[in-house]
């Protein structure tokens, strides 16, 4: 007679020694089955021992319904080329596929691989030619640009931002900057807005090499400072065309089109509505 305690101990040992039950797909509702026990592999590591996974086209059709498989078989594909590559020997099946293909899309509708490669090569050649022509045009435009100066060696331009308009004139000097007959630091007190007006000189490394005179009208101090920046940048590129690429990349030559949106009737501002009371 074996005590019940010893039997329970033996069962727990066998349970711990057995491999855990693992579900292959966590989302599957199929009952968990214990893993298959295979014989020990041979000593030679180059020999595969076990069951190989299913291969071929059948494994792709395994989870599909009969209606889906039938729809796939009725697709208008060029089965003649696929049969040639796959080496299918079923002549009746080949004939049926060719007849269905000829009936659905006709023969010769699909381009060959060589035709596709040739078309892609032609498209790349056209893109390269367009790029070369564009670069050639840019070089010609660059050669056409010349310095625009008056008899005193000055260059002038107009800058705009919001509702502000600034007429700026620059000439070689010591870095004197006047805005509306006042020094720049007296007219524009904010250091950030003053930096906006001087940024084209800083970008082209010509700070202190030009005297500038600006006449600005309209807008507030922020819009006037940015209008002066626009005018200074355009005047610099007129004085020396080689400054244009750097100024263009920084966006100083582009007129900023953003404006305050007009007030709408029935609203407090452009889009803000009046406070609404239900009762």
UniProtKB/TrEMBL annotation:
Residues 1-56, 80-122, 144-164 are annotated as: Disordered. The keyword Ribosomal protein applies. GO terms for molecular function: RNA binding; structural constituent of ribosome. Keywords: Ribonucleoprotein, Ribosomal protein. InterPro entries: Ribosomal_Su5_D2-typ_SF, Ribosomal_uS9, Ribosomal_uS9_bac/plastid, Ribosomal_uS9_CS, Ribsml_uS5_D2-typ_fold_subgr. One of its GO terms (cellular component) is cytosolic small ribosomal subunit. Coiled coil: none annotated. One of its GO terms (biological process) is translation. It holds the Pfam family Ribosomal_S9. It comes from the Eukaryota. The keyword Ribonucleoprotein applies. Residues 144-154 have a biased composition (Basic and acidic residues). Residues 18-31 have a biased composition (Low complexity). Belongs to the universal ribosomal protein uS9 family. This is Small ribosomal subunit protein uS9c.
